[in-house]
Amino acid sequence: MSIDALKSAIPDFAKDVRLNLSSMASDESLTDQQKYGLFVACGIASRNAAVRDALIAEAAPKLSPAALAAAKSAAAIMGMNNVYYRFVHLAANKEYQTMPAKLRMNVIGNPGVDKIDFELWSLAVSAINGCGLCIDSHEEVLRKGEVSTATIQTAVRFAAIIASAAIALEAAESDTGASAAAA
Questions:
Q1: Which domains are seen in the chain, by residue range?
Q2: Which residues are catalytic?
């Protein structure tokens, strides 16, 4: 499935999602590696197989093997870190903030691609996963790296669009299930 097939699978009640997918696909404000890495990392983070597969199929030919692996790594490592650091941030017992995480996360220090691109992907996945502590941390690294506010906003906008595509497809599946149950 390609991004065009994904757009055509989005139901009419989510026409805005289709339009946003189109604008995301034609965006030229990011480098190709940033853009297609976001497709991969956010597609995986959406936890929707159709979205994941379509975005990886779209991105894989446009990314080096190292960049494709790094985008997948960003999704995987943020899947772990976002759960842990969201807990640390939200728990009433602030003692957790003083304890070592004891989580391996070497890929953050050596992602195999430009550190800024990896941080951008990590930020977008953290936005999908709702980890404020990770969002703040990655945004700070990006700002220190002189990444523009517009670029950061674009990455998070991509995350929002990709997450909404997954939700629209799931809503359409629930309509199909409801129709079958009524028959």
A1: 3-182 (1.20.1290.10)
A2: 131, 134
The radius of gyration of the chain's CA atoms, rounded to the nearest angstrom, is 17
> Residue 47: which region, alpha, beta or left (left: phi > 0; alpha: psi -120 to 50)?
left
Q: What CA–CA distance (Å, rounded) separates 105 from 80?
A: 9
Q: What are phi and psi of 147, to 5 degrees?
A: -80, 135
- Provide the pLDDT for residue 89: 93
Which residues, 6+ apart, have CB-to-CB distance to 14 below 8 Å? 164, 168, 171, 172
Please give the average pLDDT of every successive group of 10 residues along the chain, which has 183 residues: 90 95 92 97 97 97 98 97 95 94 91 96 98 96 97 98 97 67 49
CB 55 within 8 A of CB 64: no
CB atoms under 10 Å from CB of 143, counted, come to 12
Q: What are the residues whose beta carbons fall under 8 Å from the beta carbon of 83, sequence distance 6 or more?
A: 129, 131
pLDDT of residue 113: 96
Q: How far apart are CA 51 and CA 90, in angstroms?
A: 30
Listed in sequence order, the DSSP H helices in the chain are: 3-9, 15-25, 32-45, 49-59, 65-90, 106-109, 115-129, 132-144, 149-182
Q: In terms of Cα–Cα distance, which of 75, 35, 44 is closest to 166?
A: 44
Residue 173: predicted pLDDT: 85
